[in-house]
Amino acid sequence: MSDPVTALAMTGATTLVAAMATSAWQTTRTRVAALFHRRGDSQRDAEAQLDRSLARFEGAEGTEAVHDAEIRRWRDDLVDLLRDHPDAENGLRALIEEIQPRLPTARQRWVQHVVAHDGGSAYGALGPNSSVNVHHHVGSGYQPPASPPEPATDDSR
Fold first, then answer.
1. Among 67, 90, 94, residue whose Cα is nearest residue 13
2. pLDDT less than 50: residues of the chain
3. Alpha helices for 85-135 (secondary structure H)
């Protein structure tokens, strides 16, 4: 995807679909419809297309396959728009710059399973701000270390 028009269209499509599940949707919907109005689509027709896309997305509960399909669909439509109307590029860039900061940040979730056998100990930590939870399985033969003895007190004073 080294083609700058396709790259911009992909960013626009990704932004548009990401906005569907957020409070930024109405602004995105209006601005994208205005972009497609440049090629002769009526505002109402463009908004209806966006509404159908939203309905497909919501109807599938935002599954990855539907998400990806909507991105491809809007990428292709945006590529066509930008090739036919290069003057729409600035409008799309402005939309992306306005909407992306309003979208939730991507979050990563790590899961790690650490197993110890035969009385061994295993610990693991992963990612920023991670914590270690130690679980001992009763009946595994493992005996947690004895608590250190209390310090002796000197009662002779």
1. 67
2. 1, 108
3. 88-99
Which residues in the chain belong to E strands, given as ranges? none
The answer to whether residues 123 and 59 touch, using CB atoms and an 8 Å cutoff, is no
The per-residue pLDDT for range 75-103, each reduced to its tens digit, is 999 999 999 999 999 999 999 999 999 98
Compute the Cα dihedral for 3, 4, 9, 15 and give only its sign. Answer: positive
29 CB neighbour count, 10 Å cutoff: 20
DSSP codes of every residue in 122-149:
-----STT--------TTSS--PPPPPP
Max CA distance (Å), the chain = 98
d(CA 32, CA 35): 5
Inter-axis angle of helices 64-84 and 43-59, nearest 10: 160
Cβ atoms of 132 and 124 within 8 Å: the answer is: yes
Residues 75 and 13: beta-carbon distance below 8 Å: yes
CA distance 122 to 71: 43
Q: pLDDT by residue (tens digit) across 54-68?
A: 998 887 765 788 888
CA 43 to chain centre: 29
Alpha helices in 20-118 (DSSP H): 25-37, 43-59, 64-84, 88-99
